[in-house]
C-alpha cells in the first residue's frame, strides 16, 4: 500500500514500498543527498588532477580508487535502502542528514588521504554514514517482518565491518593496503549475504533513475572541473585553449549520450542486480577521472604539468576506455546488437592507442563522436517504418 505523504509524523513504522509501485521517483531528500556528495566527488577528482600533473601517477591512482570507493559505496547503500524503505518521517530524515554529514566528513579528509596517505578522517566519515545506515536497517527489521532476516543481516554485517575499518587505523602502515582490500571485500559481501533470504523490495525503475541522476551529477562535476581549468588559463592571458575546451566538452557530451542513448533498467534478479549495481563504481569513477584528466591536459598545454604529452593523453584515454567497456558490459550487450556491440570495445581500444600519436584529446573526442554517430544510425534502423516510438517516462 502506498503511504500517504500528506502529513509527516516524527515516527511511523518502516513498511516496505511495493516493487511495482507506480510513479516511484526520486524524492527531494534523495536529490539533496546526491548534491552533497558532489563535494566529495569534486575533492577526489581535484586531488587526482593535481597528483597526476605532478607525475605522482601510482600514488594518485591508488588514493583515488580508495577514496572513491568510500564515496560510491556509501551513496549506493543509501540509494538501495531508500528505494525500499523511504518512510519520509522525521526520524528517517534526521538519520539521512547524519549520513550526509558523514559524506561531508569524507570530503574533508580527501586532501590528507592524497597527500599523506592519512585515511583517518575519511574513515571516521565513512563509519558515521554506515552506522547511521545500521539505524535504518534496524528500523526496517522491526517494521517489515517479511524481510526481517535480510534487514537484520544488513544491520549486523555493516556493524561488524565498521569495527574492522576502525581497527584498520591501528595497524602498521605496511598492512594498510592489504587490510583495505579485505575490508572492501567484506563490505561488498554484506548485500550478497543479506539478500539471500529474499531480496529487499527495492524498486527497479527507481534504482535506474537514481543511478542515472548520479551519473548526471558526476558528468556535471567533470564539466565544472574543465571549465575552471580553462578559466584559470584565460585569466592568465592564455587564449589558445578554446579548441581544447571544445574537445573536452565533446568528450563529456559523448559520455552522456552513450550512457543515456537507450532506456536502461536495473535487473531485478540476483546476481545480475549486484553486478549491475557494483559495476557502476567503474562508470562513476571513470567519468570523474575523465574530468580530472581533461584538467591535466589543460595544465600540460599551459606548461604547468610535469608530465609528457603521452601521459596527459592517457589521463583522458584510460578513464574513457574504462567507461566504454563498463557501459558495454552493463548496458549495450544486454540491450543492443550488431555493429554497436562490437564498436564499444573497439573504440575503447583505439582510445587507449590515441596517446601514442599527436593530439590525443582531439583523437579521443573524434572517436567518441564516431561511436555516437554509429549508435544513432543503428537506433534509427531498429525503429521499423511506421512504428510508434515510446515517449520518455
From TrEMBL:
Pfam families: LtrA. Residues 1-22 are annotated as: Disordered. The chain crosses the membrane at residues 60-82, 94-115, 154-171, 177-199, 211-230, 242-260, 272-292, 312-330, 337-354, 360-378. Keywords: Membrane, Transmembrane, Transmembrane helix. The keyword Membrane applies. InterPro entries: Low_temperature_requirement_A (IPR010640). This is Low temperature requirement protein A. It comes from Micromonospora trifolii. The lineage of its organism: Bacteria, Bacillati, Actinomycetota, Actinomycetes, Micromonosporales.
